């Protein structure tokens, strides 16, 4: 059975931000959109707000994103105030990236971003790995894109971790993400593998609240 698709009409500028953010993280636009949807779906939106977005936002770029069955069910249960799913979520996603551009890309980012990729393997607690993988499957994103997002864009306020039952986790990062990872690990006098476990702990804490 084919996975559900989320068809979207996006603002041109927002789509360009999404494409550049995805390129910087070494992932697909689908993963960048899924990361945004997690934040977007934490809130509810009344008709007045959506009408305002519709009046202020031009949607001119069509795209489609594969989503999980769980995400599809969640989206179908949201009141869209008479708008099609394509337009309703296109407006919210466009608004999110237009207003959070600095969270995903820097002013000096360009098409010259290093798109090379590499694999990193870490040892992680099995139970925590399972929680993260289940979360990513539910929210239609790869584990690597979630880690990339946290490395690039989120504060890591954890300074320790524990491993009860060892498991291996393979991550694929763009060279841009790897460079940021190495710099952040070095600035805290930790190895990158240790730092990635701190990232995992931060993810667990954030998705559990």
Provide keyphrases for this structure:
209 residues; alpha+beta; Arc Repressor Mutant; 2 domains; two-stranded antiparallel sheet; 4 strands
Which outline best applies? globular
What is the percentage of strand-forming residues?
5-15%
- Neighbour order of strands in the largest sheet: 1-2
Radius of gyration: 18 Å
What does this 3D model show about the protein?
The chain has 209 residues and is of the alpha+beta class. The protein folds into 2 domains: 5-104; 117-207, Arc Repressor Mutant (Orthogonal Bundle). Helices cover 56% and strands 14% of the residues. The chain is built from 10 helices and 4 strands. It has helices at residues 12-25, 29-40, 47-56, 69-76, 85-99, 101-104, 126-138, 143-153, 175-187, 192-207; strands at 5-10, 61-66, 117-125, 166-174. It has a two-stranded antiparallel ribbon. Helix 7 (126-138) packs across helix 10 (192-207) and helix 9 packs across helix 10 (192-207). The protein is globular, with a radius of gyration of 18 Å.
Task: Write a compact overview of the structure shown.
This protein is an alpha+beta fold and 209 residues long. It has helices at 12-25, 29-40, 47-56, 69-76, 85-99, 101-104, 126-138, 143-153, 175-187, 192-207, and strands spanning 5-10, 61-66, 117-125, 166-174.
Question: Topology of this structure?
Answer:
Layout: E1 5-10, H1 12-25, H2 29-40, H3 47-56, E2 61-66, H4 69-76, H5 85-99, H6 101-104, E3 117-125, H7 126-138, H8 143-153, E4 166-174, H9 175-187, H10 192-207
Helix pairs in contact: 1-2, 1-5, 2-5, 7-10, 8-10, 9-10
